[in-house]
TrEMBL record:
An example molecular function term from Gene Ontology annotations: ATP binding
Protein name per its UniProtKB record: Nitric-oxide reductase
Residue intervals passing through the bilayer: none
Tree of life domain: Bacteria
One Pfam family from the record: CbbQ_C
Keyword entries, A-Z: ATP-binding, Nucleotide-binding
Annotated ranges, domain AAA+ ATPase: 25-175
Alphabetized SMART domains for the sequence: AAA
Family affiliation: Belongs to the CbbQ/NirQ/NorQ/GpvN family.
Organism of origin: Staphylococcus muscae
InterPro entries: AAA+_ATPase, ATPase_dyneun-rel_AAA, CbbQ/NirQ/NorQ/GpvN, CbbQ_C, ClpA/B, P-loop_NTPase
Length: 265
């Protein structure tokens, strides 16, 4: 099987370079950009290049303190003795181990949920666990990256006190030659002509997302990579069906993508 390079690629070299520099200064990084622009891939590449494991939180309106910090449960020993123990969540795990904490779509969370992280994100690098009373100080190496997609359905304005704890890097959607390079590097597809067709098809999808005709996830880099992989073992039309069309719930969106398929392929 072809070896796939999973590193982050962007025509603007300052994006990754500045992220590395901010890491070295122990700054919290807020990656701001549209869905599928590679924010998570950038965070993963930082984790790989620094050799620091990453713990991820996927924010939603249902996110609560237990999702962030952990929860109590009953543990039964071999002799049948039961005791209440606390299972660390991603925030506390990352702090204890000196790992990276990645908070995806941070503005999807309810504003009242996140202030518990204020002490984690400022110079103190510590929190008091409300479930146990333990004061946890972050081990050396602990770093925080968050991602935000402003204006996306379901997002809320980010609290200014929280935003002020981050340094912002804009991550724009990649296209053209850079997108061609990403598809060749991160998928199994190496057919240049077909990759160019896929890029043109994706431009049409992006136009529809900008006009509100299509959900943004349909035009994401993740979907393109999956589609390109499948295109090496099945016709491109079926690859698009499997990776994009069948994921859409709205029949009008499905038909819009199908029209773009017929136009481009």
């Amino acid at each position: 099987m072809t070896q796939v390079n999973t590193g982050y690629i962007n025509a603007d070299k300052t994006v990754f370079g500045d992220a590395e520099k901010l890491f070295s200064l122990n700054k919290n990084i807020l990656l701001k950009g549209p869905t599928g622009s590679g924010k998570t891939r950038l965070a993963e590449t930082l984790s790989e290049t620094t050799n620091i494991p990453m713990h991820q939180i996927n924010c939603s309106v249902d996110l609560d303190a237990e999702s962030l910090l952990g929860f109590k449960t009953i543990k039964t020993s071999e002799n049948g003795h039961q005791e209440i123990v606390f299972i660390d969540g991603p925030v506390i795990k990352a702090m204890r181990e000196g790992h990276i904490l990645y908070i995806d779509e941070i503005n999807m969370a309810k504003p009242e949920t996140l202030p518990i992280l204020n002490g984690v994100l400022d110079y103190r690098r510590q929190l008091t666990n409300p479930f146990t009373g333990e004061v946890i100080k972050a081990a050396p190496g602990f770093k925080v990256i968050a991602a935000i997609n402003e204006g996306y359905v379901g997002t809320l304005p980010m609290n200014e006190a929280l935003k002020n704890r981050f340094v912002v890097i804009n991550v724009e959607y990649i296209d053209g030659d850079t997108l061609h390079q990403v598809i060749k590097a991160q998928s199994l597809l190496q057919d240049d002509a077909l990759i160019d067709q896929i890029i043109k098809f994706n431009e049409d999808l992006r136009t529809m997302t900008q006009q509100g005709q299509l959900s943004e996830e349909a035009a994401s880099i993740r979907a393109l990579i999956d589609m390109s992989d499948l295109a090496t073992v099945m016709p491109i039309e079926r690859a698009i069906q499997r990776t994009i069309i069948d994921k859409l719930e709205d029949e009008r969106e499905q038909q819009a993508v199908q029209n773009a398929v017929e136009l481009n392929f």
